[in-house]
Design a protein that fits this description.
Shape: elongated
Order of helices and strands: HEEHEEHEEEE
Strand order of the largest sheet: 1-8-3-4
Largest sheet: 4 strands, antiparallel
Structural class: mainly beta
Distance between the termini: 23 Å
Length: 115
């Protein structure tokens, strides 16, 4: 199926060093957005627990709305971070943000080719 073969790129804006992220997951590009050649972004806010897991993730903003939020939330909840240490002890980090960009790689497919 052509849609499944379509290559896309998802660009992440990490709030801290990638080395601090031990596990990350690329969100799945929503089929409806892909079929319509829609690109966009989602801004997420979340807490990193003492164990390095994400909790309480929520969408702060998205453009366009209604396409990428669910995929971004599913992906961020799979992230695993190196816990932040204060005085040698792990602490919870509240209010971290991440902006996930959803972009279709138009050079590798004619599905959404430029005009």
């Amino acid at each position: 199926m052509k849609v499944l073969a379509l290559v896309f790129a998802i660009v992440f804006g990490f709030p801290f060093d990638l080395s601090a992220t031990s596990i990350s997951a690329a969100p799945q590009y929503p089929k409806e957005a892909l079929d319509k050649c829609i690109e966009g972004w989602v801004l997420l806010k979340y807490t990193i627990t003492k164990e390095g897991r994400v909790k309480g993730a929520k969408v702060v903003d998205a453009s366009p709305r209604g396409y990428f939020e669910e995929s971004a939330l599913s992906a961020i909840n799979l992230f695993q971070f190196e816990p932040k240490l204060v005085g040698g002890l792990p602490v919870e980090v509240v209010g971290e943000t991440k902006k996930m960009h959803f972009q279709i790689d138009k050079t590798s497919s004619d599905h959404c080719g430029s005009t």
